[in-house]
Please model this.
Amino acid sequence: MGKLKNIIAVLIISISSITIGGCGMGPLSSFDNEKEAQKYLLEQLSFKYGEEFEIVKQSEDDYEEYPTKNAYSTRLISKDNPDYQFSAWTVSSGEMKDNYAASFFASQAEHIAESICENKDYLIDYKVQLNAPVTDKKWSRDSDFEKYISESGAYNRIDSTMQAGMTNEQYANQIYDLLDSLYETNTGFELRVDNKVEDTNELIFMYNYDPNDEQLIKPDKERIIEMIESELRTNNLLNDGSQQQQ
Model:
């Protein structure tokens, strides 16, 4: 009987250990307010990556209440690598996601698209930035780059500017050439094109490419012209609406 009690005691301790720490939850396993959410998130990130982090963005929308659980999201930096900001998200049930790993691969990934853009004389300006969805998976600095790019959902956002005053067909020819070169990299991207040198929110073309999407149809020149015309119509409607409000 004594042995049975000892076995039961060991099982209880083991189950408690798994419940509290076996999933990497740290001291807190949930939270009930924004302060606890911040503490929980910082603890989880530290446990996941072995680094210390700091929250750099606070807003009223960081902590939101849902019918069944509370969610907290924010922007952070690593105290050891403060040049890169990333996003993290958690809910009071214990789930936590982040895209910190993009900092490990940003320069390598962005160089892929930059090397294409720098050889296109028709681009007046361009900017490439790696975007990545938050994930619960841990990617380390030693992770394989090709594996990260193909499995993480990360993609390059390319904001580009072409010469103003051209016809839609001329724009389509240049966009088609740019897309054709980007396809060859076999990496995901979001291409945005405007035709103004100054900063603007108005685009003449936008397109998302996922190399893992076998159903995706690459647009030909005719389809690109249609997409340009649609974007311009949207811009005109927005401008007309804005003028009417004034």
Remarks:
- Residues 3-27 have pLDDT under 50 and may be disordered.
- Strands lie at 53-55, 63-65, 70-78, 85-91, 96-98, 123-131, 155-162, 189-194, 205-209.
